[in-house]
Amino acid sequence: xxxxxxxxxxxxxLANGLGELGLxxxxxxxxxxxxxxxxxxxxxxxIKGCFVQLFLNPRLLPADLAFQINDSEISxxxxxxxxxxxxxxxREQVKTVKHFICFHGTHPRMVDYEKLLSSASAxxxxxxxxxxxxxxxxxxxxxxxxxxGVLLPYRNRFAVARNILLDGFTDLNxxxxxxxxxxxxxxxxxxxxxxxxxxxxxxxxxxxxxxxALEVIEKHRITTIKTIPTVLIRLIDSPDIKKRxxxxxxxxxxxxxxxxxxxxxxxxEILGPVxxxxxxxxxxxxxISILKKEDHFFGDPKREKVLSSVGRAMxxxxxxxxxxxxxxxPPGEIGEVVxxxxxxMIGYLNRPEATAEKKRDGWIYTGxxxxxxxEGYIYLTGGRKSEMIISGGxxxxxxxxxQVLCQHPAVREAAVIGVADLKWGxxxxxxVVLKEGQKVSEQELIDFCKKGLISYKCPRFVHFIGExxxxxxxxxxxGDLRKRYRK
Length: 487
What we know:
By secondary structure, the protein is of the alpha/beta class. It has helices spanning 4-20, 38-48, 62-72, 84-89, 113-118, 154-167, 192-197, 210-220, 229-237, 261-271, 301-304, 352-358, 398-405, 442-450, 478-484; strands at 28-32, 52-55, 76-80, 99-103, 111-112, 134-139, 149-153, 177-181, 201-204, 224-227, 251-255, 275-281, 284-291, 312-313, 317-322, 335-341, 347-348, 359-360, 363-372, 378-384, 389-391, 394-396, 411-421, 425-434, 461-464. The chain is built from 15 helices and 25 strands. The strands form five sheets. An eight-stranded mixed β-sheet has the order 5-4-3-1-2-6-7-17, with helices on both faces. The chain has a seven-stranded mixed β-sheet with strand order 9-8-10-11-12-13-14, sandwiched between helices. Strands 15, 16, 18, 19 and 20 form a five-stranded antiparallel β-sheet that branches. The longest helix has 17 residues, at 4-20.
């Protein structure tokens, strides 16, 4: 464990130590490691030193790591000893990297992280932060194509922290105990600063399996959790969950992918009115809309309708739905979700054409299809534009089919894609993960869907799969499924 003061001192030492290595403000520094106690001091230390940070996904292949390091022109890498050999294997390929720094252990060809800190000054670094300067590079998850480097200014992290505190963690205080059940290098990292601003204690777990999570929640009386639906579903499916005392939990903030309403209801019955949902994407980092605790209501069909939404735009965020010509659509009509605010990206690294397509007149074109109702609730009707299925000239939105499939008592998860069809152009294929010990036939699921969907939206094919492929961020990789079942 570390106190806030100890983390602040170590962050100062890191910033000053990197300066003593010859790294100047604006230098680009990558970090590769699992969730650990070092995450906060590295995050804050690089901000204090006015460095640009790249958070590498530990699940990437060496070739993909090399691509991102070279594409970002990284000057130094701070790597957990666990991944030192991986970085060693691409050392000759990453020509811009001058310094390799190893933490949680040592490596003969790398600078010792703890020695670097111990030899550096603990004083506040003599740097001046310009909030509009480039502060972070994040690569997109690659669900819709090759990863792109998203350029975010320092201002972004502070704007996101404000948005989360104002609209999500509204009652967070210094008595709270916060835990992230997902990678800190990705979405959960945005929740670190809000928790620290309010003085909440941050508990860190390296893995996200239900047994570890439940033990930590019960033992340490965790009050606030950030996670993704995939992990939340695994948690509520755990046979141990009803044996544990989880009464300390006040808030569970989930996001990054849709949460099926029937599974959300199960979670609500077990854990109570603790849920908050956030919708965002890296280009409009972590905060577009919010479905608040009071919106998570069961028992009244009229109020339950909003559970299939992603809530309403955050206070400092504007959202609208537009058609193909860029005209704003009235409530209820399907179009592309576009967003603006002081938390959006600068652009994509080295990709001016992609930037011009994604960011227009200060608005981020999310690629997500949706509607807004009269009360301002946003409904994502079909995932991304690239995931929409067109069969016989008719649009089919995967999420709508997935919602129906997952109402079947044997189904744990489902992902729907379009596959080639000689007659209709595309046909609906469902990839289904069954609950443990459950059995159901392909035809039974197709017949089940016919009760809740118009015929052309029903799956023509059902494939049973052990696990859905996911990106490093935990999202279902529809691109991988389409490649797998292309024929």
